[in-house]
Design brief:
This protein has helices spanning about 15-25, 50-60, 75-80, 100, 125-130, 165-190, 220-230, 295-305, and strands at about 5-10, 30-35, 40, 45-50, 65, 85-90, 110, 120, 135-140, 150-160, 205, 240, 245-255, 265-270, 270-275, 280-290, 295. It is elongated, with a radius of gyration of 22 Å. With about 300 residues, the chain is of the alpha/beta class. It has two domains: about 5-205, 3-Layer(aba) Sandwich (Rossmann fold), CATH 3.40.50.170; about 210-305, Methionyl-tRNA Fmet Formyltransferase, Chain A, domain 2, CATH 3.10.25.10. Helix 1 (about 15-25) runs parallel beside helix 6 (about 165-190). It contains eight helices and 17 strands.
Length: about 300
């Protein structure tokens, strides 16, 4: 029996966990170690906290590498010494330099949660929700030096019904990506599966999200704001100011009836509160005032005696 290819697994967030678990269960490769971001301060006390992937690796007895930069000579030397034949990458969140991509003879396989070339970049799940896509999916690709521009190994689609919230959609796509990897990895390793070049036709790019992206802009259509509320959970979230106090919006809907409102006006509607927009009204179904618990829009209205 041929030796299992020694593999480096790159990732950070919880969406990488299904792929790592499936790799370990399938026993197709030898996971030498996990490469992830260094621990970061978390919580009010700023306690240094490892990434979810690092915690999972430690629990499995897998060595963890946390380089600050992949471009440092000592880091490159350390990775070369592994003698990896394959890199698998899921949600690493950093650019992988060519010096690393060129190390393994089987290349670097990336699981990307969109149907490339649509929604390349840092926020593909949010991009699909914001664009009201009717389908999305997962791409297994061979990485190159571009931003999600490498050849496509395999893809799988799933329909969207317009009610998806980012965390749940990310979880579903993470599971699909793990399945896709295990399904096609044997053929990739034995050379019977080849990647096809990625087309530039229909390519779109998503950028990293910023905290201020979460502000609900009443000069935009109500439908766009409803999609934003679903797309920007849990971060940066969607928020507005009511009487000078910030209120986070967790669930919303678009009022069917036409009301004469000014964009930015807060009105009472359907036992709750709503935001006037440029073309209609956004109902605020679940909100969270600063420093308080989540509550229904109706409870917020009663508490404020609006």
């Amino acid at each position: 029996m041929a030796a299992r290819p020694r593999t480096l697994f790159f990732g950070s967030g919880s969406v990488a966990l299904p792929a790592l678990a499936r790799l370990l269960d399938a026993d197709l490769v030898e996971v030498d170690s996990v490469v992830t971001a260094p621990p970061r301060p978390a919580g009010r006390k700023g306690v240094l906290t490892p990434t979810p992937l690092a915690e999972a690796a430690v629990a499995q007895g897998i060595p963890v590498r946390t380089p600050v930069s992949l471009r440092r000579d000592e880091v490159l030397a350390e990775l070369r010494a592994v003698g990896a034949e394959l890199i698998v990458l899921v949600d690493y969140g950093r650019i992988i330099p060519a010096a690393v991509l060129g190390m393994p003879r089987h290349g670097a396989l990336n699981i990307h949660p969109s149907l490339l070339p649509r929604h390349r970049g840092a926020a593909p799940v949010q991009g699909a929700i914001l664009a009201a896509d009717e389908t999305t999916g997962v791409t297994l690709m061979c990485m190159d030096e571009g931003l999600d521009t490498g050849p496509i190994v395999a893809q799988v689609e799933m329909p969207l019904d317009g009610s998806e919230v980012a965390p749940e959609l990310e979880e579903r796509l993470a599971q699909m990506g793990a399945d896709l990897l295990i399904e096609h990895l044997p053929a990739w390793l034995d050379g019977s599966l080849t990647a096809r070049p990625q087309s530039e036709e229909g390519a779109t790019l998503t950028r990293p999200l910023r905290r201020e992206d979460g502000r609900l802009d009443p000069e935009r259509p109500a439908l766009e704001l409803e999609r934003q509320v679903r797309a920007y959970q849990p971060w940066p979230g969607s928020f507005l100011e009511i009487d000078g106090a910030r209120v986070k919006v967790w669930r919303s809907g678009v009022l069917a009836q036409s009301l004469a409102v000014v964009p930015g006006e807060i009105i009472l509607a359907e036992e709750a509160i709503a935001l006037g927009t440029v073309d209609g009204v956004l109902r605020l179904d679940e909100v969270q005032p600063a420093g308080k618990r989540r509550m229904s829009g109706a409870d917020y209205r009663r508490g404020r005696r609006l």
